[in-house]
Specification:
509 residues, mainly beta, six-stranded antiparallel beta sheet, flat
Length: 509
Amino acid sequence: MKNIKILMLFMLTAFAISCSDDETSLGSVTNANPAGNISALFTITQDNTGLVTITPNAEGAVRFEVYDGDGATEPVELLPGQNMQHIYAEGVYPVKIVAYDITGKSSEATQELTVTFRAPENIEIIATPVAGNSFGIDVTAKADYETFFEVTFGEAGETPIPFNEGQTVNHVYSAIGTYTITVVAYSGGVATSTATKEVTILDPLKLPLDFESATLTYSFIDFGGCATSLADNPDATGVNTSTKVAHMVKNAGEVWAGTAIQLEEVIDFTTYKAVKMKVWSPTAGIPVTLKVENAADSGINFENQQFTTVANAWETLVFDYSAIDASQEFSKLVIFFNLGTSGSGESYYFDDIEQTVSPLSITFESAVNMSSFGNAITTVEVNPDQTGINTSAGVGKFEKPNGAETWAGVAFPQNLPLDFSVMKKVKIKVWSPQAGIPVLLKFEKGDDNQVFIEKTQNTTVANAWEELTYDYSDVIDSSVPYQTPVVFFNFGATGDGSIYYFDDIKQSN
């Protein structure tokens, strides 16, 4: 008989899962969920003996029973992390794993094990970038006649990671570059098959931008007499403790001098329509303009201007782009300090450019999502007094009829939670028939109106517009997603038929 070297391979195919409950309980934990995500890792000794190591795994399991599928009627009992071994001949074997949780409840899965005499064929490597992490990669693989895989990702000092078909292995690279992923498919014998796939890891320049990355190249496109570069933080206290920041020197030159940063990813303004930026200025009251442009056509742009409020200290400015055309592509940032004034060599710093939600701004010049309660009646009407501080055409009319509840009011649900990290004050223009009327302004958590912050201000004039300011800096909980502003006129008093008007509910510094 010819001496033929026989190669054996084990192939893991799809498995079926069924669950059953044990009547056993352990005191107060009888309501625990049964063990889930049951699987087993099959590995083969590469000596043509057919010796397979079976390692069961499941979420929430405290012990296992493993039936080898080769005719054994009694299971092998294992604890998490333990394994069993069995020698198989060629064939297909239904290996059953029963997992028990701490209460004694059981769940089971049957996983087919195929023993054949063919080497792995048709290896396919699937490499997928990890969302939100430009250095991360997810790898899975499939092949014909394989038992299990091992993967290395092309970095020095790696230990191969074993996995079965259908499983995903994650890796985070240490630096940008092109790497070779190597997948070895193992058979039931000594034979293996190998496939490779190249991946290129990039670190695109995109928002948020913090100037701290060691792998990014921060290129500043200066114009009009400005000189911008990376620098050490001149004041790593307060709102900005970063190590590195951008430093702009505005030399004598054009009044429109500034710098531009070309991002490598288009900014998505469909949901988050504002941008925050930390700035440091030697003078308070300096205008800071943040403009976004289309990379190919600078004529497609949008800009917003804010003013510094402190000198020689970091502060965060919010630039509102709620009126931007989100269908256009914007990927260039253009930054101006003291636009309209020629430089004198003064220094400005900026850092931590990131998107956020637009500041709260409720006007009545178009449709408004609002909901009255407590028998209040709220409508949009023509401004009854278009003089003084409010010349708007449309305003909100709030009527508190006779007998209306003491807590009658109107709510304005927002699409997204508000960002109170920078603008902790809210202003509202009101018109009241009497002075001394309490106006309560409340902000509720989006899905729970029992979680809220509120402040009250009193009107000071009668039959005229005035602006009330509410400061929430002492009550804001940054972990709570406040989403719904609620307005109450003459809170605590039963309705007497009085009519109030209000307008321009806006966040402010």
